[in-house]
Amino acid sequence: MSVSRDVIVTFAEPILYEGRSNTKDRDFYVDLGLLGMCRDGYRLIDRFNLPLVSDPHALADWSREITEVEYLDLVGPPDIDLLQAKHPGLRWMMEWRSKPGRETDYGQVERILHLISEFKRGNRALRYRLTISDMG
Questions:
Q1: For 97-130, what is each residue's pLDDT tens digit?
Q2: Phi first, then psi: what are they for 66, rounded to 5°?
Q3: Contact between 68 and 78 (Cβ < 8 Å)
Q4: How far apart are CA 69 and CA 119, in angstroms?
Q5: Residue 1 pLDDT more than 60?
Q6: CA 25, 94, 45: angle at the middle one, nearest 5?
Q7: Segment (H or E) for 64
Q8: Which backbone phi and psi does 119 adopt, to 5 degrees?
Q9: Is the Cβ–Cβ distance between 5 and 132 less than 8 Å?
Q10: Rounded to whole angstroms, how far apart are CA atoms 58 and 51?
Q11: Pairwise CA distance, residues 57 & 32, whole Å
Q12: What are the distances in angstroms from CA 122 to CA 22, 85, 115, 119, 128?
């Protein structure tokens, strides 16, 4: 079965996107699986005591707001070196990207760099939501 594992960070101010002005989007989606930050989404259900929130006949979704402390424990601080130390999958992606000819191939790494830039520019997180979805 395929499982998605996402954290949605809701910022106080709209997120800045290069080349797009006047965006009102304040929700930043972090796919923990694609970023190499979490292999087993099902373990997160128990670890964070996530309630089942999906309709009875739908695929299963577990979700709740998590605290900043829980977020920092799961994802880590907005510092690329500390994140790489915490998550071997992210470190591997950064090393792969550093090889000649791959410097501009950001892929999912671009997402985490963008997230860090939002925190560094002083955009304050209002809340964090962890969601695990059974994709069938």
A1: 777 876 666 667 888 889 999 999 999 999 999 9
A2: -115, 160
A3: no
A4: 15
A5: no
A6: 60
A7: strand 61-66
A8: -65, -40
A9: yes
A10: 15
A11: 26
A12: 18, 23, 11, 5, 16
Name the token pair of 39.
């292999």
Pairing between β-strand 27-31 and β-strand 3-11 as defined by DSSP bridges = antiparallel
**Contact call for residues 134 and 57 (beta carbons, < 8 A):** no
What letter does residue 52 receive in the DSSP assignment?
B
β-strand pairing of 125-134 with 27-31: unpaired
Spatial distance between the Cα atoms of 94 and 84, rounded to a whole number of angstroms: 8
Q: Quick count: other Cβ atoms within 10 Å of Cβ 43?
A: 12
Closest of 12, 7, 8 to residue 27, by C-alpha:
8
Alpha carbon distances (Å) from 49 to 9, 25, 97, 109: 19, 28, 35, 29
Q: How many CB atoms lie within 10 A of CB 78?
A: 16
Amino acid at 73: D
By CB neighbour count within 10 A (0-12 exposed, 13-18 middle, 19+ buried), where does 30 fall? Answer: buried
pLDDT averaged over every residue in the chain? 87
Q: At residue 63, what is the residue type?
A: S
More confident residue, 122 or 55: 122
Query: What is the SS3 assignment for 71?
Result: helix
